[in-house]
Task: structure prediction
Amino acid sequence: MKLADHVLQSFDDACAGKFDLALLHACIAIDATSKRLFPSERKGGARYTNCVRRYYWIVEPMLVGGINLAETRFSNIRLTRAQPPDLADIIYEVFRCSHAHGDEVPPNYSVILTSGNFNSEWVMADNELHMPDRIIWALLGVTVFANVNRGETNAGSYFLSLGDDRFLLRDWWGREDDFKPFATKHNTTRVKFEGLDRFEKRTGFRQR
Result:
């Protein structure tokens, strides 16, 4: 499948409530984007995580609404590749690699159904992270708006939204510079999470 096809399939799966499949296609789209963004980087994990980090300014307003992802380390999470991990590490190791290797995502990680324009619930505990299903749209936003994908095309009325603004995919491929003012407008509050390693088992934190 072409990159644009993965994006559209992710849209279709998410709208049908098939979040695992939607996240799979969104993760594959990030993979393809990272290869274009860092063509000389031979390590797939480094390409992937650096791509996500480069576009935290897109991910933050589309996903979290207030969390500073550039500085937050999820010290309650234990991964094999990075300690303590940031969100890019978690997306790569837990979601991208699980799907790519044909494994199920561990039950202590999941996406939570959201509604409305801004309500996003996070549930965190010891070695546990459940994030809003908006992660799917945030990763698709990175793929669509990234300048390296400006040559992509698609038909239909598929769109991404941020607040009350809508962005038709067929008109917005590769227009990260044009999207930045919208992202900045919705990302004025950025809070660094700290002390997450103090969670005890079966206790946690909910953030809306």
